[in-house]
Amino acid sequence: MVVPTLLLCLISSSQPSSTAFLFKTRVAMSLTELDDQTVRSMSIGAVFSDFGGKINSLDFHRKDDLLITASEDDSVRLFDIATAKILKTTYHKKHGADRICFTHHPSSVICSSRYNLDSNAESLRYLSMYDNRCLRYFKGHKERVVSLCMSPINDSFMSGSLDHTVRIWDLRVNACQGILRLRGRPTVAYDQQGLVFAVAMEGGAIKLFDSRSYDKGPFDTFLVGGDMAEVCDIKFSNDGKSMLLTTTNNNVYVLDAYAGEKRCGFSLEPSPNTTIEATFTPDGQYVVSGSGDGTLHAWNINMRTEVSSWNSHIGVATCLKWAPRRVMFVAASSVLTFWIPNDDSKSIAAPASADAQAQSEQFTQ
Ligand SMILES: *[C@@H]1O[C@H](CO)[C@@H](O)[C@H](O)[C@H]1NC(C)=O
Ligand SMILES: *[C@@H]1O[C@H](CO)[C@@H](O)[C@H](O)[C@H]1NC(C)=O
């Protein structure tokens, strides 16, 4: 598993922290399944504390080792997650940066606006990070976009807004391709095949649509048993079998994505005026979530047990996502942290963990 060239480069590197980071994330990169011990060993490997405000949303590229963030300081920042380095920062003073997601291209993203949200607002922008250009504006929403996702298979994307609509778009076309009107705060997500999408609405109802014929209405509706709170985030597991819901009253549920049955549910500490994000691991076996008391938690879904809880070191983590193909997750408040396995039995990992420890202590003081 240990690659000698990486060892060499670690020893000779003038930047021990990022090279060691690369080494540590590579160690377990070929994983197909995680185990409790690896999940428990996760700890902070890199810290970015120069944001001028809260991080509103973040997204990983599906194939490349890239992360994009949108922050209250109007910045959009692109990171290389293999080396824990920032690649590019752009500022968006006119529109702000609220929800963000990658397109299929590694340097193009869709970003929703925070400012000037009148009836003719440029509420969504298709941005090129490569040359800092806006490739297209998408008009239609009359309020803030609270949920945004890109189809995993083609140029379609979806946005859910506080104006009580979900809009379906094509990256290549200015005009909206479809509208769903509904009650409450709409939250949207595609499944991993892009053939089905889920929309959460008022009363905790989850409706499933066929992407090719959503105009015919939902083909299935689930109610999250007993919980009428609004769902503020939906994610499908990679195998498509499970759905993860986070509600505005701080509950996290894992549902069977076919039958809608609740597989497990967890309660978090309340987080006034802010929503919390939870994430599946890529193997769909664990859920990791933030909490209102500034901790992070990991649960084993099959065993329905908590396997770990950590001090986030950054207060309430409102953004949390596990990287698609790595043993790594990111948690963010107004500080962005990269979490990686901290396996002290491998002496090579020691310099990096010492370094990360020093960094995490620095900003909690
Ligand atoms: C994307 O794929 C879905 C499902 O096959 C299809 O309904 C939709 O029209 C496609 N969108 C684009 C922009 O090609
Ligand atoms: C939450 O928002 C309400 C109303 O906007 C405000 O009165 C309250 O102080 C806020 N609470 C926190 C913890 O920020």
From TrEMBL:
Pfam families recorded: WD40 (PF00400)
Location in or out of the cell: Nucleus
Superkingdom per UniProt: Eukaryota
Principal localisation: nucleus
Record flagged with keyword Cell division: no
WD repeats: 48-89, 138-172, 268-309
Alphabetized GO MF terms: chromatin binding
Name the record gives this protein: Uncharacterized protein
